[in-house]
């Protein structure tokens, strides 16, 4: 992802200098307009005006898209794209929310919810199930299973979810699950995944549903995939 700060900085620089050039050009053009053969200069003036408007438009577009990136980083909205790269859907744990049917709270079937929400490559049946906690500062996963697809449900605390994704430049997609959210994610066989509790105090809870046997001799899992976690 491009650095949004650097992006908007260079944009405002270039639009400043272009409007300065335009002002100098236009004042000299006004003097020239008083002369008899002003027509070519009028054309030049209009051309410059069109160029300045095009540059202002491009600069507005760039500022708009970099503010979109900033909103995503703050986790406020516009998350759809990053979430789909990380192969997950998020729901509010409080109502209104599609996973909250009445005032007892949320309830969901991870396999069918993943299938119906466009989360691809998860387990279609739960042959092995893990239910667990990740305390403040802890991490689970950071491994790659070759013998199963896995579907996750994550909730309870601010949690970083990283999923290997070859379509993303750095080789993985990463999103933050907020403490008031419930996430359904999938890690297809052969992709690495990691869950990191980044909350100030709360525990993350998760369920992992696997459709194949991960051998106890670990021959079909890579461990410690990412060194920066
Ligand atoms: C994982 O999912 C793929 C299809 O997405 C399927 O072919 C495969 O049998 C599933 N299970 C394992 C253990 O790979
Ligand atoms: C690991 O276990 C599987 C069966 O569970 C076996 O087929 C495989 O040969 C074992 N690998 C090693 C390296 O022992």
Q: What topology emerges from the helices and strands here?
A:
Blueprint: H1 4-33, H2 39-73, H3 80-85, E1 88-92, E2 100-102, E3 105-106, H4 110-116, E4 128-134, E5 139-145, E6 150-155, E7 159-164, E8 172-177, E9 181-187, E10 192-197, E11 204-210, E12 221-222
Antiparallel strand pairs: 1-9, 2-3, 4-11, 5-10, 5-12, 6-9, 6-11, 7-8, 7-10
Q: What does this entry look like structurally?
A:
There is one protein chain. This protein has 229 residues and is α+β, with helices and mostly antiparallel strands. It has two domains: 4-73; 80-222, Jelly Rolls. The chain is built from four helices and twelve strands, in the order αααβββαβββββββββ. The protein has helices spanning 4-33, 39-73, 80-85, 110-116; strands spanning 88-92, 100-102, 105-106, 128-134, 139-145, 150-155, 159-164, 172-177, 181-187, 192-197, 204-210, 221-222. A hairpin with a 7-residue loop joins strand 7 and strand 8 (172-177). Helix 1 packs antiparallel against helix 2. It is elongated, with a radius of gyration of 26 Å. The structure holds 2-acetamido-2-deoxy-beta-D-glucopyranose (2 copies). The site of one 2-acetamido-2-deoxy-beta-D-glucopyranose has 8 residues, from loops. One 2-acetamido-2-deoxy-beta-D-glucopyranose binds next to loops. Residues 8-20 have a biased composition (Low complexity).
């Amino acid at each position: 992802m491009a650095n949004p700060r650097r992006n908007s900085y260079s944009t405002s620089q270039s639009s400043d200098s272009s409007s300065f050039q335009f002002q100098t050009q236009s004042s000299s053009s006004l003097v020239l307009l008083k002369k008899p053969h002003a027509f070519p200069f009028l054309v030049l003036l209009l051309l410059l005006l069109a160029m300045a408007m095009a540059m202002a438009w491009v600069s507005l577009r760039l500022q708009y898209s970099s503010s979109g990136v900033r909103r995503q980083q703050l986790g406020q909205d516009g998350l759809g794209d990053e979430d789909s790269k990380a192969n997950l859907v998020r729901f509010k744990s409080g109502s209104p929310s599609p996973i909250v049917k009445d005032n007892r709270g949320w309830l969901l079937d991870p396999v069918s919810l993943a299938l119906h929400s466009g989360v691809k490559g998860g387990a279609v049946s739960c042959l092995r199930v893990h239910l667990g906690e990740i305390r403040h500062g802890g991490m689970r996963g950071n491994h790659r299973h070759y013998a199963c697809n896995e579907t996750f449900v994550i909730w309870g605390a601010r949690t970083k979810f990283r999923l290997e994704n070859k379509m993303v430049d750095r080789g993985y997609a990463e999103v933050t699950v907020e403490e008031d959210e419930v996430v359904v994610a999938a890690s297809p066989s052969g992709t690495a995944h990691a869950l990191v509790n980044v909350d100030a105090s709360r525990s993350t809870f998760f369920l992992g549903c696997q459709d194949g046997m991960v051998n106890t001799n670990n021959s079909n899992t890579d461990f410690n995939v990412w060194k920066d976690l």
